Amino acid sequence: MANTPQSKKRARQAERRTDINKARRSRIRSYLRKVEEAIASGDQAKATEALRAAQPELARGVTKGVLHKNTVARKMSRLSARVKALGAQA
Fold first, then answer.
1. Angle formed by the axes of helices 44-63 and 69-89, to 10°?
2. What is the pTM of this model?
C-alpha cells in the first residue's frame, strides 16, 4: 500500500497508464485480427490493405512501450510473408 505522497501519486499514474496501455493493446489486436481475417478469406488486396493499416499501429505500440520492438518486427515479418504467399497461390 502506498504511504508517502510520492508513492500515492505513482500509484495513481500507474493506474492511468495501465488503462491507456490496455486500450492501446486492444486496438493493436483489433488491427491484427483484421489482417488475419483478410488472410483467411484469401483476398490478397484486402489483406495487403489491412496490413498497411496495422503496421503504423504496431510501430506506435513499440514507441509507447506497449510491445517490444522484436515482437513487432517478428509479427510484421510473418504477416507480410503470409500476405505475399496469398499472391503465389492465386
1. 170
2. 0.86
In 3D space, the residue among 77, 79, 65 whose CA is nearest the CA of residue 20 turns out to be: 65
pLDDT computed for residue 2 by the predictor:
82
Give, as one character, the DSSP assignment of residue 4.
S
Across the chain, which has 90 residues, the per-10-residue mean pLDDT values are: 92 97 97 97 95 97 96 97 86
Give the model's pLDDT for residue 88.
78
For residue 51, the tally of other CB atoms under 10 A from its CB is 22
Residues 6 or more apart whose CB falls under 8 angstroms from that of 44 comprise 83, 86, 87, 90
DSSP assignment of 21-75 equals HHHHHHHHHHHHHHHHHHHHHT-HHHHHHHHHHHHHHHHHHHHTTSS-HHHHHHH
